[in-house]
């Protein structure tokens, strides 16, 4: 149904988007969004949704407000479901009220979906509760964008200075001298605790603690710039005790995840939970086979095999997609023993109703062979569903042991066609601290797009899983700075986190 939803995206942490907001984004025909602290919210949109960026950054208006109003009205009148996505809360310095008035005037239906305002969230992530029984029971949200050259301020500085409230100034960094001067002129002590919180709740979060009198000089000294909140009041003194987010070891560290988009989420989540700014740069993508007839033929004779060995979670998914296509399920494996190369692959099998009969101690092909030979696999019939391009160690060694081995390609891996310039610039700017590699193919395809010299000229560390990946990395002149203790994604994340703790 035709309707405009004014949705608050929150201050930047994707986890702070409301469930209602996420649901509406996933259904909307049209998404009209402002400058957002995190574009990850757009991942929730339909792939066929019309996306319009209408925000402003640093005074640069992509679309004037009256034109934004016209766009919302036009889309609603054309029968579209419109998600108007705004940073923070639409009714807290978000001009949501103005847009709602225009929609009413045009006869358009609308709904407001409140968002978590940065005035609450950013101080909270800095360990500053904006109210506290020992300090204050009130808070004021104030625009810091007032023109300092105005002959007379429209703000009641005396009321702010003498209220005892926590004061939270939006967009106030450029006017800090003006704000602090007016507060002190109105009677506020220059020793009153004050804080700046920049990029609050995001991986770039940073805070600065000073006093009202010293903050303008401290902000300039430490290079604080928009977007920042200015918080004033006794509650700021709790920062040292209550700070929690800023203790995350990867906070502000840029980490490149080279796994395929289908697989990147687990590693990205583990790193982001410790504060990392994750750059997803998939070196490979998983592609379905153009011809699945050989897979279906193998399924028809699946019962003839003694062992089926899965070497990746992708192999499990792709094989079972074809199993589902012919109306079969895990029962097709009755009487067959199943091996998984690692815990992630075993977990995928478990989700499909199969428990792996064998999981090696080390998650590489060589260890699989050793373990299976100890289980008298010699002379048995073995099926290996896997990527078309993969190492041949496993089938060759099993064949040498007398096994009848069938290698069954169930998916393709191929390089991702993407523009590397943004990542190259981030590396050169010092925004990247780690590049993670989870397989030889991620190494090869990464360096096919990013010249090795770019990485060598930087301070970026390389992190990888397993000796095979490390050996491929060595071909490009790199020795891994970080190695996972075990050959799993969680272990890789733990190794990067441990390294950050020791070097920060």
UniProtKB/TrEMBL annotation:
GO annotation, biological process: cobalamin biosynthetic process; methylation; siroheme biosynthetic process
GO molecular function: uroporphyrin-III C-methyltransferase activity; uroporphyrinogen-III synthase activity
Catalytic activity, EC: 2.1.1.107
Keywords: Cobalamin biosynthesis, Methyltransferase, Porphyrin biosynthesis, S-adenosyl-L-methionine, Transferase
Domain Tetrapyrrole methylase, chain residue ranges per copy: 3-214
Pathway(s) where this gene product acts: Cofactor biosynthesis; adenosylcobalamin biosynthesis; precorrin-2 from uroporphyrinogen III: step 1/1; Porphyrin-containing compound metabolism; siroheme biosynthesis; precorrin-2 from uroporphyrinogen III: step 1/1
SUPFAM superfamilies: HemD-like, Tetrapyrrole methylase
Recorded superkingdom: Bacteria
Residues spanning the signal sequence: none
Tetrapyrrole biosynthesis uroporphyrinogen III synthase domain ranges (all copies): 266-493
InterPro entries (alphabetical): 4pyrrol_Mease, 4pyrrol_Methylase_sf, 4pyrrol_syn_uPrphyn_synt_sf, 4pyrrol_synth_uPrphyn_synth, 4pyrrole_Mease_sub1, 4pyrrole_Mease_sub2, CobA/CysG_C, Siro_Cobalamin_biosynth
Family to which the UniProt record says this protein belongs: Belongs to the precorrin methyltransferase family.
Protein name: uroporphyrinogen-III C-methyltransferase
Organism field: Solidesulfovibrio aerotolerans
Recorded name of the encoding gene: cobA
